[in-house]
Design brief:
The protein is of the alpha/beta class and 90 residues long. 37% of the residues lie in helices and 23% in strands. It is built from 3 helices and 4 strands, in the order βααββαβ.
C-alpha cells in the first residue's frame, strides 16, 4: 500500500501498548498539524488518530532471526513510503 500524503510521519515502537501508554498525545498533535501518521508495532490494534497501522512482529531478543526479517520488512516499507520524519521508540 502506498500512502499519498506529502507530510507522512512513521511512529514506531516495539509494542502497541507502548504507543498507547506514552505517545497518544504526540500522535494526536501531529495528526492535527496535518501529518498523515502511520504507526508501526507488534500487534495491529486501533490507535487514536493514526491513519494507518503497519504491523511488524518485533521480538525483544536482539539475536532473534525474526528481527532480521523485520529489518528487511521495514526497509522495503520505508523505501516505498518516503516518510517526512520517523520516530522510533524502545
Amino acid at each position: 500500500m502506498e500512502l499519498v500524503d506529502s507530510k507522512k510521519l512513521l511512529y514506531c515502537a516495539s509494542t502497541t501498548g507502548h504507543l498507547k501508554n506514552f505517545h497518544l498525545p504526540y500522535i494526536q498533535a501531529l495528526h492535527e498539524a496535518g501529518y498523515q501518521v502511520v504507526v508501526c508495532a507488534d500487534k495491529q490494534e486501533p490507535i487514536t488518530d493514526a491513519d494507518y497501522f503497519f504491523c511488524v512482529p518485533f521480538q525483544k531478543s536482539i539475536t532473534s532471526l525474526e528481527n532480521v526479517k523485520n529489518i528487511f520488512r521495514l526497509y522495503r516499507f520505508l523505501k516505498q513510503e518516503q516518510f517526512t520524519a520517523i520516530g522510533v521508540h524502545t
